[in-house]
Amino acid sequence: MKSVGRHMILELWQCENLNSIDIVERALRDIVRACDLTLLDLRVYPFSPVGVTGVAVVSESHVMVHTWPELGYAAVDIFTCGEERNPADAVPLLREYFTPGRIQVMEMTRGIIDD
Amino acid sequence: MKSVGRHMILELWQCENLNSIDIVERALRDIVRACDLTLLDLRVYPFSPVGVTGVAVVSESHVMVHTWPELGYAAVDIFTCGEERNPADAVPLLREYFTPGRIQVMEMTRGIIDD
Questions:
Q1: Is B48 annotated in the active site?
Q2: How many CB atoms lie within 10 A of CB A38?
Q3: Do residues B6 and B80 lie in contact, with contact meaning Cβ atoms separated by under 8 Å?
Q4: Dihedral sign, CA of A91, A104, A79, A63?
Q5: pTM for this structure?
Q6: How close does chain B come to A111, measured CA to CA in Å?
Q7: Cα–Cα distance between A65 and A77 in angstroms, integer?
Q8: pLDDT of amino acid A115
Q9: To probe the interface with A, which of B64, B71, B76 has the most A CB atoms within 10 Å?
Q10: Residues B26, B106 contacting (CB under 8 angstroms)
């Protein structure tokens, strides 16, 4: 069956660098490049007292990062459309930037077309 | 077990108004209000030839809409943290704005804390 896109959902634990807006922005830029996505907009929002949200809006959908430094946890979503795109290409970069001790990865197929 | 948030994933089919940046923006604003979220930023991006992406960044995470008017399909994600928030409060508004003939709803618990 055809589908619209792939939505990778990642849970990162025991992470570092979760309160750095610079690292979150660099991670998003590198993920966009590694997944061969077309960047439309990239914004990073710091939270008080800690935490960062970063979003890259791309032609192929989005990449989103929310961090909870106090828990060592980051929620990451990578939604790509186009069959030649593979959100799994982001995983080595997430390991590099946030050095998670544990990653859980799920992938959902979005927009399954029942012909 | 405690967790960080609730991530509702919705697949909307047989929709109307999917190419309207105005409707997508109004839907996002009303969802933010209905779910008692704190809006930090709201942006809507039109695509060529058709399609809209809308994102509301909120203190409690995000609301994201991607539309494919040519398929009558919209992918919606509502990620909320804080136990008093209920992303299901968005569903009546999605029905009102996009009049889907069919909705599939899933909910994932994000950031489950294994004490």
A1: no
A2: 10
A3: yes
A4: negative
A5: 0.97
A6: 7
A7: 7
A8: 72
A9: B64
A10: no
Q: Do A62 and B61 touch (CB under 8 A)?
A: no
Q: Mean pLDDT, to the nearest integer, of A21-31? A: 98
CA A53, A99, A81, B73: dihedral to nearest 10 degrees?
-50
Interchain CB contact of A26 with B (< 8 Å): no
B4 touches chain A (CB under 8 A): yes
B4 vs A contacts (CB less than 8 Å):
68, 71, 73, 75
In B, minimum Cα distance to A71 occurs at B113
Determine the 3-state secondary structure of A19 from DSSP. Answer: coil
Contact B28, B90 (CB under 8 A): no
Contact A97, A27 (CB under 8 A): yes
Farthest-apart Cα atoms in chain A, separation: 49
Mean pLDDT of chain B: 96
With vertex at residue B41, the alpha carbon angle to CA A66 and CA A19, rounded to the nearest 5 degrees, is: 30
Nearest-CA distance B11 → chain A (Å): 7
Measured distance CA(A63)–CA(A78) in Å, rounded? 5
CA distance B85 to B96: 21
In the numeric block, the tokens 């004490």 are attached to B115
Percent over 90 (pLDDT), chain A = 94
| Cα torsion through B96, B99, B102, B108, rounded to 10 | -40
In order of A81, A106, B50, the CA distances from A8 in angstroms are 11, 6, 24
Q: Which residue has the tokens 């008093």?
A: B84
